[in-house]
Amino acid sequence: MPARTKPRISLRKAPQQARSAQLVADILEAAIHVLTRDGARRFTTAR
Questions:
Q1: For the chain, what is the total number of helices (H) and then of strands (E)?
Q2: Angle at 8 between CA 11 and CA 41, to 5 degrees
Q3: Buried b vs exposed e over 26-43: b needs ≥16 C-beta within 10 Å?
Q4: What's this model's pTM, rounded to 2 decimal places?
Q5: Residue 30, helix vs strand vs coil
Q6: Three-state SS for 46?
């Protein structure tokens, strides 16, 4: 299995501040965690 790479997701606008960039990274990491644990069927913002 190939090494996991960072997902290529297009953002409308790149974050300028470090904390904004970290927030985007944290949200994407959480999304990956939910998809891995629960699958696409349970992937929703209504939790």
A1: 1, 0
A2: 90
A3: eeeeeeeeeeeeeeeeee
A4: 0.56
A5: helix
A6: coil
